[in-house]
Amino acid sequence: MAQGPRRGGRKGQSYTATPKLRSYDVPPASAVTVTRADGTVEVVPAQKPQATKKPARRRGPLVCAKCGYPIDGKAVRSTESWMKGKPVHPGAACPRQKVKRPTKPDPASTLPRSRGGTAQPYKSPNTRAVKESAWLQVTCPRCGAGPGTRCTVRTPKGTVTGSAVPHQERPQIVRRAMAAAAAQKKAQRTAQLPG
Predict the structure, then answer these.
(1) Which of 53, 168, 83, 56 is nearest to 122 (CA)?
(2) Are strands 32-35 and 87-88 parallel, antiparallel or unpaired?
(3) Degrees to nearest 5, angle at CA 62 with 57 and 64
(4) Which is more confidently placed, 2 or 94?
(5) Residues 82-113, buried b or exposed e (16+ Cβ, 10 A)?
C-alpha cells in the first residue's frame, strides 16, 4: 500500500497521512489483485456497488411564523419583509394570535403610592423575613432612628423624611437575634436528651 507524505508534528513527532482514495469507501467494480507485504497474492472479485440512502428526515407540522401555532391544511408563504417566504396561516389574520404584552409598563404602576401610583416599595429579603413590629423595637445603626420610629432618608431636594422601608441593617439585627435564640434553644434540647 502506498504511504502518504510524512509530516512533522510538534516536538519532532511525525505521522503518516493516510491517502484519501476512492477505493477505501467504494467496493471495486472489477477484479482486483492485492499483493501483501509477505509476498502472498490475493484476487478480490468484483462486487456490485450498493447505493446508500440517506436517512429520511422527519419533519413535524408546519408552524406559523406570525403566531407560532401549527398550520392545519394548506400553508401560505409570507410576503412581509421580516418573515418573507416563511409559512403562515392562509387569510388575513391568524386564528389564534398570541396576546401582545405592552412594551412599556403602566405609568401608575411605577409611581409610589404617595404620588398616586400603585407601586410597592422594594423590600429586601431581610425586611420581608421580619415583621415590622419587630424591627421597630431596635435602633437603626445607619440613621440612628430610635425604637418606635421609622428610618429616615434624605431626599434629592435635601429634606429628611421617614421611610416605609427600613435600612437593611435594622431587620438584620432582629434576624441575627432570632437565629441566636433558635440555636440556643436547640442546644438546650440536645443537652436534655438522655444518651
Answers:
(1) 168
(2) unpaired
(3) 145
(4) 94
(5) eeeeebbbeeeebeeeeeeeeeeeeeeeeeee
